[in-house]
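Researcher: I'd like a structural prediction for the single chain below. Treat it as a standalone chain; there are no partners to consider.
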Amino acid sequence: MAWSENEFLLVTQYVGKRTSRTLVFSRDHAALAILLDKSQLIGQLPVELREHLRANDHVFVEASQVEGGMLFFRVWGYGLHDPNGFRWRCQYAMSQATTSCSAQPVKP
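Model: Treating it as a single chain, here is the predicted structure.
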């Protein structure tokens, strides 16, 4: 759990051994709550990235910070589709509810 920009509470919630999700709460806008997990991201990401989420049984979404209306987080995981793992750095534009991710090298 962490505060970001003194306005947002960021929570990475580990759900069992195979997944985690990110929750974002606004101190000033109680109605603003964001949930990003494997299921949510499948619908927001480009088609070429979706199979990494669908076909791997270990997928983790971890919040890092909010800056200028942008939530920064990472997604990583492994499974049948990516036995050596995958790792992305992602951004979620909170005002537009859009997500973009870029692949990062996976350390051997």
